[in-house]
What does this fold into?
Amino acid sequence: MTDLVPLLHARLRRDAVQLGLWILAALALAAATVAGVRGQFPTTEDRAGLLAAAIANPVILLLRGLPSGTDEAAFAAFLIAPFLLLLAALMSTFLAVRHTRAEEESGRADLIAATPAGRSSPFAATVVHGIAADLVLGGLVALTFVGLGYPVQGSVLLGLATTATGVVFLGVTLLGAQMVRTSRAANAIGVWATLIGLLACGLGNALGTPSEDLQRMRSAPLAWVSPFGWGENVRPFDADDARPLLLSFALAVLCISVAAVLQHSRDLGASLLPAPRGPARAGRLLSGPIGLAWRGGRGAIAGWVVGGLLVGLLSTRLSSVIAQVGDTVPSVQALLQTLAARGSLAQGAIEVFFTLAGILAACAGVQMLVRLRRDEADGLAEPVLAAGGGRARWLGAGVVVSVAAIVGVLGAAVGGAAAGLLTTDDPDPSLLRDAVVSAAGQAEAAAVIAALTALAVVLIPRPAALLGWVIVGAAAIVGLFGPLFGVPDAVVRASPLASVPVVSGDTVDPRGAIAWAVAVVALGVVAFVGVRRRELVADR
It folds into this structure.
């Protein structure tokens, strides 16, 4: 036990900024939701109208929680619960990898294992550290809702659901880190497990059984295979049923226990899955910085492309359902207009889904540029520069692969939209045009975010990776949820995801296309000029 104290102290010092940002983001989102509900939906009739629209429209339930009545607190939980659970899951995922597989990959785990701490104490410290972070997050979420005047029991259960979901994905990622040799692969396992769980829960809610008054929804069985479904079925401020969380804690205990056994039984640096064996000699692709950057990022790009394909497929497969709702449930049209869709309901669905595809594309582009910073910090950029690549070519390689990732994700989304139309009864060919326009606009938005990340890598390299992901998160939150939170239009338009060209009726609304194009070029020029004038920074 005495070995845990210095290890925990070191982890707390190392993670203070990262965990602080995750927790502050969750609390700010919770407070903004309550303010948005009180400002945008002050009456029971307002909330009832949106709940009826959500229950009638599968798209809205994919992006929101489980409807549980018109009470203000329950309505706020419906809007925010999935995103609180998502933040807890992602925070725990990255924490688990940072202190296990990443430590082995860097060689620090060998140094710690040579001390009296041995091999078991660092793993135990990571488990305690992760659970403590989730408890702090859940506790502060509960205090936030209590402080804003909501019932104590429901607030505590919402905080407990947040904690439980974080602990589940802590365990899942700890287990995944035993399977693969690299921290990148371990992070990919955790992130994709999180996204699949979120999608399964959203689909389970969308396919559920509504109440007769269209104010509540009972989840379909699909939601019950996901930790997000377990957290949402607590129904804070309504049923206040903590029993689904027993499933979360049981799965967490199982995953952590199996991970502990595997950690103890394997060699440091080894994994259950063997590392892929490449050819004995490098091909022509690896003769330059671009080929090297592509070789390192192609696996991650493939995962983001699959995500874009699925989003595009859903955009047109569900549009036919949405188009039939407008005449019978006018609040659906009002809601989609609130989300910035100005045309038919099917066009609104295209815009919403392609905004999600734009977020995936931005994540893919940022990840490729963040890899440059990681290679620099690990000393891997020096051999590339020593081979005559030059700083500008090194940065250019990352930019080229980042652009390829953005185009690949959104191109796959357009392909998925086309496939969805081909498998839909009485398809509307104009929706493919809408998808292409939306994809082009979101490509520009993702390029802006990637350009900002590239500039951060050049000018402020040490926090550049964190800053890149913060930019993605801020743009997504403001762009997707700003109107519902009552954020001023000027602030919403500051998010490139929400101010790029879209189809409005039979015309194209250019929005900020020219301004963002100029911004991309300007940011790129500054980044390439700046990278020529700075030295490599080989530490984090």
Observations:
- Confidence is low (pLDDT under 50) at residues 325-343.
- The chain has two domains: 1-267, 294-540.
- Residues 294-540 form one domain.
